[in-house]
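User: I've been trying to design a sequence by hand for this structure and keep getting stuck. Would you show me what you'd pick, starting by listing the structure so we're on the same page?

Assistant: Good idea, let's start from the same input. This is the structure you sent:
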């Protein structure tokens, strides 16, 4: 079994450091043509950066939110931002003007999906919503008309989202955006379930029950027929989307899974147990472990046969996705790496230290010889499913390691919120807090074959203290 340890590989070359943001960079996204990067920050602003110029330049600052930005997206010449101030904003890329404020959620925005005609959002307020992208016909004072659906039924905050367009063509002569009766939205929640919804009616179609912890990340296979859900219970489950049947449970991590990335052949999971694991659809145990991380791994990217990881130990890493060999360590941030993007031979990383850093990534995969081979077959239970729908859209669902940097605030916050939710005390399940706290603080098993490394005691203590503080605040309302 391949494993990338903390030795070997090379240190990535740092090209640029931008310190324009005043606080942590929480999220980033590349524009559709790849010419611009957008970062969202704890300082309540988003910034646009050039990616095809010799030196990275800040093209504009988007100011208007009253709290931190949790998610960003782009479409055409627009930037969309979701914030902890409970609003979504649409911005003009060229002028930095805020064109519209989407109001309706009652708590922070968690994730967004941006389509041609619609924006889907999930929130800590237990709901998901669908909004009109084109708001030019909405009159002043009628802004609430931008929200066309509210998907309500989850018992706790909603996190990941997936949109699956209907397979059959649907002709509608009425003017305006078209909703196909077969369009489906899938949401994952801290209530330990995922749900599928009819976009046309807003009604719940199926509930995917089986996790014993929050559903933290989701993805579908390439056919859009199999749903993968990852959870705070350290497991991944696969489901027949149409029937709701659980096909397999993949156990191998021993702490919360933060990110899930699916390819046509395998899928990868990133966890607070300090490891990343690779899996094949048919086998319920991991086939590869990517080691060397000294903190929780919060985000994964797959590019040119390389698996890229963003880690709370302040380091981004690049592994050979097939062998697990560590190819590069990008060392230089002073706090957790929260997000990353690879384009034009460059790696962009956003960190809790408030900086955007640009690294040379063009030679990382040049010497990787990967045998692609045929993709694994679809699980047998799904063979009788309906004809394949269009590809699902998933929300924009990490050598020598130096001393770990300071605790990752965004990762800590996510762990607190998912495992001990409460806004004003109304979402904390009274029978669960003690169990949740014990699970969050539980160290990895010692001496295991896969990722036997324990979380450092100070990190476990920090999680305990943060969760206790959150529970106190929730209890006080």
């Amino acid at each position: 079994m391949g494993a990338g340890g903390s030795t070997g590989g090379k240190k990535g070359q740092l090209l640029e450091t931008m310190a324009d943001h005043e606080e942590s960079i929480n999220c980033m996204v590349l524009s559709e043509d790849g010419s611009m990067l957008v970062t969202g920050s704890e300082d309540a602003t988003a910034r646009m950066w050039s990616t095809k110029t010799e030196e990275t330049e800040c093209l504009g600052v988007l100011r208007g939110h009253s709290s931190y930005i949790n998610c960003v997206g782009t479409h055409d010449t627009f930037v969309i931002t979701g914030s902890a101030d409970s609003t979504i904003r649409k911005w003009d890329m060229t002028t930095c003007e805020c064109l519209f404020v989407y109001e309706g959620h009652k708590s922070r925005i968690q994730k967004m999906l941006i389509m041609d005609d619609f924006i889907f959002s999930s929130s800590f307020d237990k709901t998901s919503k669908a909004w009109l992208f084109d708001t030019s016909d909405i009159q002043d004072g009628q802004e609430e008309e931008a929200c066309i659906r509210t998907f309500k039924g989850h018992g706790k905050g909603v996190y990941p989202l997936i949109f699956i367009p209907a397979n059959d063509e649907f002709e509608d002569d009425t003017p305006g955006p078209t909703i196909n009766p077969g369009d489906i939205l899938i949401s994952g929640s801290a209530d330990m379930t995922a749900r599928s919804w009819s976009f046309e009616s807003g009604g719940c179609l199926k509930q995917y029950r089986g996790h014993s912890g929050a559903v933290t990340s989701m993805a579908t296979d390439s056919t859009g027929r199999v749903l993968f859900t990852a959870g705070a219970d350290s497991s991944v489950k696969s489901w027949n989307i149409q029937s709701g049947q659980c096909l397999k449970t993949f156990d191998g991590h021993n702490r919360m899974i933060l990110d899930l990335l699916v390819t046509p052949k395998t899928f990868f999971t990133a966890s607070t147990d300090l490891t990343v694991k690779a899996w094949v659809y048919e086998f319920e145990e991991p086939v590869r472990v990517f080691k060397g991380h000294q903190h929780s791994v919060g985000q994964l990217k797959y590019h040119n046969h390389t698996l890229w990881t963003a880690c709370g130990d302040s380091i981004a890493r690049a592994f050979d996705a097939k062998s697990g060999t560590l190819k590069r360590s990008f060392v230089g941030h002073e706090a957790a790496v929260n997000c990353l993007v690879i384009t034009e031979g460059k790696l962009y990383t956003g960190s809790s230290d408030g900086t955007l850093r640009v690294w040379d990534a063009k030679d990382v995969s040049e010497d990787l010889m990967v045998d692609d081979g045929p993709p694994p077959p679809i699980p047998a239970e799904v063979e009788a499913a309906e004809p394949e729908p269009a590809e699902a859209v998933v929300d924009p669902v990490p050598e020598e390691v130096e001393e770990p940097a300071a605790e990752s605030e965004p990762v800590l916050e996510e762990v607190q919120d998912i495992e001990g939710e409460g806004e004003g005390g109304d979402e904390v399940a009274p029978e669960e807090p003690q169990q949740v706290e014990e699970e969050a603080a539980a160290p990895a098993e010692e001496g295991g074959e896969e990722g036997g490394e324990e979380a450092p005691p100070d990190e476990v203590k920090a999680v305990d203290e943060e969760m206790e503080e959150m529970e106190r605040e929730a209890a006080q309302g």
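That's my pick for every position. To get oriented when you compare it with your attempt: The chain has two domains: 3-169+178-364+376-394, 409-476. The chain is about 10% helix and 40% strand.
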